[in-house]
Amino acid sequence: MGNKMIERFQHYFPGNNDGIRVFFAPGRVNLIGEHTDYNGGYVLPAALTLGTYMAVRPRQDRQFNFFSESFPNQPVSFSTQNVNFESDDPWGNYPKGVVNELLKMGMKIAGADVYYSGNIPNAAGLSSSASIGMVTAFGLTQMSGEQLPIKDLAKLIQKVENDFIGVSTGIMDQFAVGFGKKDQALFLNCRTLEYEKVPLELGDYQLVITNTNKSRGLADSKYNERRTECEQGLKEIQKVKKNIQSLGELTIDEFRNLQDNIKDSDVLRRVRHVVTENERVKLARKVLKKGDVAIFGDLMKQSHESLRDDYEVTGLELDALFNAQKEVRGCVGTRMTGAGFGGCTVSIVLSEAVPEFKKQVQEKYEQETGFVPSFYICEAGDGVKELKEVMV
Fold first, then answer.
1. What Cα–Cα distance (Å) separates residue 195 from each residue in 72, 122, 198, 286, 313?
2. Which residues are catalytically annotated?
């Protein structure tokens, strides 16, 4: 991929090879712990071997030029004196927001030509936005010689998505993209940012990601609405339990004792999902350490049901996949992953059963929805990095 990146870079940005470097940031799949990150709870994501590649060559004229193979008709160019959000620029606002934030920090970046290529499905819930954000921030800071710790880069990209893009994301996506490790999941406390790498040893099973192929834009979904509902639930609870700072701090017993203080039934169900999902993540960490794939799979199914019934972020397509997948022999666990309202499911499937899994799921899903799903056999991979073996 690296040398091909150089060739494609030269096609769009002719010139010498001096100073060209290639970087990679993965997408991520959240195995369990959905909509808990911005509630100060626990999550269990893993970086993927799918991701975003970036070739970059520095400039000295304060001009940035971005080109993406995923959006070949929408190149982006701007100067450091005119870094503005453009509503008709669906992908370029992400790297543009990174440049804006780095400049505000006083980072010495004097321009660059940047070429992107990747294999993450866009708007599928596999964190393509965090991937392009992290690879851009990591690459540009490495090029500048003013390197930032991965944790600081993750916070920076979260800030870009919150303030520049206008989507109230949590920290999970950026953290997973930054700290991912091959064959490991990341158990993350989103309130304290304490994390632990957990073995993801599936033995005879494989991770299968299924794309509904129903496009969903995070900013256009009910993501922000759900966040507001959770904030309302927290305020109601704080009237009684004044020292609590986030829903992620509530135990199930505490929730049961305090739930009568939440008067709105929708808000009550949102809070119940967050609290029960948090407990599922903590249990998932324990069973993965023991290598108990079957119990982990049961927790995944419970997670989807909670996201469907209490949080209401699944929808027809994700539920159709879930219902078809859980019935296939050899599928021990499955659930939606990402913000919801389209996007993907993640399943744990016996390796020998994968062909039949794909066949049955496609038939049932297409019959029910009219969409044809896409399947990705995935592994947990490393986080953001430079591909130093590339010859230029």
1. 38, 27, 10, 14, 27
2. 173
**Segment 265-315, tens digit of pLDDT:** 999 999 999 999 999 999 999 999 999 999 999 999 999 999 999 999 999
Confidence bin at 18 (pLDDT 50/70/90)? confident
Strands, sheet with 205-211, edge to edge from the N-terminal-most edge strand: 331-337, 344-350, 205-211, 374-378
**Cβ contact 112:58 at 8 Å:** yes
Phi and psi dihedrals of 349, rounded to 5? -130, 135
Nearest to 260 by CA among 279, 283, 280, 237: 237
β-bridge pairing 111-118 and 42-58: antiparallel
As a whole number of angstroms, the distance between CA 305 and CA 282 comes to 18
CB 297 within 8 A of CB 348: yes
Q: Which residues contact 312 (CB under 8 A, 6 or more apart)?
A: 269
Tokens matching residue 130: 């965090």
Output the pTM of the full model.
0.90
Q: Tell how strand 111-118 and strand 63-68 pair up.
A: parallel
Which class for 367: exposed (0-12), middle (13-18), buried (19 or more C-beta within 10 A)? Answer: exposed
Q: What is the pLDDT of residue 220?
A: 53
* Mean pLDDT, rounded, of the chain: 93
Burial 40-56 (b: 16+ CB within 10 A, else e): bbbbbbbbbbbbbbbbb
Question: Given the structure tokens 């994301």, which residue do they identify?
Answer: 169
Task: Determine the Cα–Cα distance for residues 88 and 75; give it in Å rounded to an integer.
Answer: 12
What does the pLDDT look like over 197-227, one tens digit per residue? 999 999 999 999 999 998 765 435 688 899 9
